[in-house]
Amino acid sequence: MTTVYNVRFKMRGFVAATWASDDPTLEDREFGLETDTGRIKAGDGATAWSALPYIATYAVWGRISGTLSDQTDLQAALAGKQAANARLTALAGVTPADDGTYANPTSITIENGLITAIS
User: Fold this and answer.
1) Range(s) of the domain holding residue 35
2) pLDDT for residue 111 is more than 70
3) Is residue 77 part of a domain?
4) 60, 77, 79, 92 — which has fewest CB within 10 A?
5) 3-state class of 70 per DSSP?
C-alpha cells in the first residue's frame, strides 16, 4: 500500500541586497533564494552567503533584462558563428572544393566556395 505524505517545502528568501548586507551562514543543506533575481544558493553550515556559489538552475526567461549587448554569453556565441558566406575551412579533414562543376554521380556546382546548384 502506498503512503502519501502531504509536506510543504519552504526556503529562506530575500532580495539580493538583503542577502548581501546580512551575509548569513546557511545551515548545511539549507537553501536561500534571491527573490528579485530567482537565483539560489545551498548552505554548507560554515560558509557565508557571499562566498557560496549559486546553484545551476534553468533559465528564467521572464527575468532577462537589459539590452542584447548586456547578454555577454549570447554575444560570445554569436561572435564565434561563421559567416553564412564564408568558406568552410574549420571542419577537420575537409578541404574546400574549387569553383566548378562536379558530375559524379550528381552534378554539383560551386561558386565562391558555396554550393549553388545540385542536379
Assistant:
1) 1-68
2) yes
3) no
4) 92
5) helix
